[in-house]
Amino acid sequence: MREALLAVALVLPLLALPVHADDPASMVRITEVLPNPDPALGQREFIELHNAGTAPVDLQGWKVRDAPTASNNTNEYTFGSLTLGPGQRVVLWSNGTSDAVGPSWSSSPSKAVWNDAGDAATLVDASGATRDWLGYGSTTQAA
Predict the structure, then answer these.
(1) Most CB atoms closer than 10 Å: which of 22, 52, 79, 132?
(2) What is the pTM of this model?
(3) Is residue 92's pLDDT more than 90?
């Protein structure tokens, strides 16, 4: 049963950053993280972003990163040319190959990003401003 629970995707952000109707980029949110997939079910790690706004948002230069480790190492992905239209979602795969729903951080199927016991995902725009944050398990938000 424990394994089944760990394979459930996390969908509730622990920190609600401001949403401003006049700022379309504030409508892009982390909506789901699957840190511990079940390979027997064909799952793999991912994070999903959703544009809940009414205007497209250019994600070029935006970054998704996990929380730093004790040795201050972090995994980070920088988006290339990608515009997320109103209501659209994009999946960022942690390992394997990209597909029609999104790009991949790594072409190695064994390259995990998210720590099973706890980690945090931070979404940063091209100017370096934090747009969203989602933590789970044993993690806390950095000051």
Answers:
(1) 132
(2) 0.81
(3) yes
